[in-house]
Amino acid sequence: MVTPTLPAATLELARHDPSQDVIVFEDVAIAFEDQVVLDGISFRLPRGETKALFGTAGSGKSTILKLAMGLVKPDRGHIYTLGQDVTQMREDDLFELRRQVGIVFQESALFDSLTVRDNVAFRLMEESTVPQEEIERRVREALRFVELEHTLNMLPSELSGGMRRRVAIARAIITQPETILYDSPTGGLDPVTSTTIVELIVKQRDVYKTSSLLVTHRLQDAFVMANHCFDAKTNHMRHVGPGERMEVPMAFLILRNGKVIFDGDVHELARTKDEYIREFIS
Amino acid sequence: MAAGDFLSSIELISPSEFAKRKIQSLQDYSILAGQSVANLFRSPRYGADMVQQMDLIGFGSLPIVLASVFFTGAALALNSATTLSRFGATTVIGQLVSIGIVRELGPVLAGLVVAGRNSSGMASELGSMIVTEQIDAMRALGTDPMKKLVTPRVVATVVMLFFLTILGDFMGLLGGSVVASILLGMDAHEYWSNAWQTLVFSDVFMGLAKPVVFGYIVATVGCYYGLSTKGGTQGVGRSTTEAVVAAMILIIAVDVFVTRFLMAVLGA
């Protein structure tokens, strides 16, 4: 596999500057019933970086996203999202913080009784200070971004699985949050639709410099993201050649038995000697 | 399913664990019930959602509430006529139906009918939102589901059950009147003047205080079971059934205490 030349040193520096981190997990543990899901995991998501989370089913990847949003509380440890310790915050205060973070759920989680327009506009309508014309403009803009402007008045049940994911992305980006959490955005989709969604994530990362945590089962999607950048001229992503010195802010985090067994960039992943990881990526 | 599989699928828990879970449920319900009222005094308030729920709960339940209380009033008149005729006192049917419907049967029947229709509706709607992660999505989008979903339903149910009970009471009296005048040959004017004159403030107050309590029970129980749904579509079905059963039992049980309390307070 051809990998781009990454400015690893830059990313490394960013990792050590706490003010540059949008999400920090410190020794986080959580168990459901008697099942330990996460057992003392620590990692950082630097500003502007996309970190792909891997692990077998049930390894706690989706739980990490919910923990980062404060939707569930850990049994131990601290989680800092946009500099605030979500483990110590009251639910009322968390609502304010969550408005600054976008999330795309595994099954889209669109409100099935609302139209696509109302789903995408939900956050803006809740703010109640945004004028109707402004809401309309931003909804169209977000839907244009995911190329679904024509679905404005449709209900989620009238959309295909891939379209629902794209609407969920539009809903997540409408307020242009500086961080977006994606939970298996390409899971169960055909390769063509998956590529469309990967391209949208790359576009969001490279055009709007959004930081993101990306849960996925599809290693190839993450490698595509690590190998491509978005070309605004052609409105498509393009492969970053081995000779190009272009920053692709992409990292990988692998979970096993509730612990982080790998946290690094694509070069470090390619060089790893860990048998399990080598088998995982092969 | 083989008997062995069935037995192994049954979860066995210790009595202390069972008690702990029940107390936890009671605590969760109390928090939800308390927050649903406290949210009225905190912004944002969802007026449009309240109006929408009033339409769904109030106007949607109107035909069945009116029909059930009308026929109960008619049946009450029929049954009392049989007994009262032995004493030559059929003229007091109006009083009996009036007291029975306004103080007791109107509010309880309206409460039970609305519980059957709306506790289940709320539990299934919110339960479906739980299993499809829509509630998590709402929280993640910065909106409090308690304020957006629970409080509007509680307010709408309390307000609409109050008015449904008033209309239901009238229909119950009308049902009694139809039986009294058509089947028993009573003078309709006599029936209505008896029914009207026998009512005192305490009867009306008692009859209108109960739907406020019952509406609160219907909505909070429906929302509680919906929001505590676990286990996919099967869990939604279970929540729906449990919500209706719990709301109905609670209405009937609480009715006794509310009646006793109001009798003590009003001296009636």
Task: Give a quick summary of the entry.
The complex is a heterodimer of chains A (about 280) and B (about 270). With about 280 residues, chain A is an alpha/beta fold.
Describe the structure.
The complex is a heterodimer of chains A (282) and B (268). Chain A is of the alpha/beta class. Chain A has one domain (8-100, 177-281): P-loop containing nucleotide triphosphate hydrolases (Rossmann fold, 3-Layer(aba) Sandwich). Chain A has helices at 8-15, 61-69, 91-98, 116-127, 132-145, 161-173, 191-207, 219-227, 266-271, 275-281, and strands at 21-32, 35-46, 50-54, 76-81, 84-85, 101-104, 179-183, 211-215, 228-231, 236-239, 250-256, 259-265. In chain A, the strands form 3 sheets. In chain A, strands 6-7-8-3-11-12 form a 6-stranded mixed beta sheet, with helices on both faces. In chain A, strands 2-1-4-5 form a 4-stranded antiparallel beta sheet. In chain A, strands 9-10 form a two-stranded antiparallel sheet. In chain A, helix 4 packs across helix 5, helix 5 crosses helix 6 (161-173) and helix 7 crosses helix 8. The longest helix of chain A has 17 residues, at 191-207. Chain B has 268 residues and is mainly alpha-helical. Chain B has one domain. Chain B has 9 helices and no strands. Chain B has helices spanning 3-9, 15-38, 47-86, 93-131, 134-140, 145-183, 188-198, 201-227, 232-266. In chain B, helix 3 (47-86) packs antiparallel against helix 4 (93-131). The relative contact order of chain B is 0.16. The model of chain B has no long low-confidence stretch (mean pLDDT 91). Classes of the chains: A alpha/beta (282), B mainly alpha (268). At the A-B interface, helix 3 and helix 4 of A face helix 5 of B.
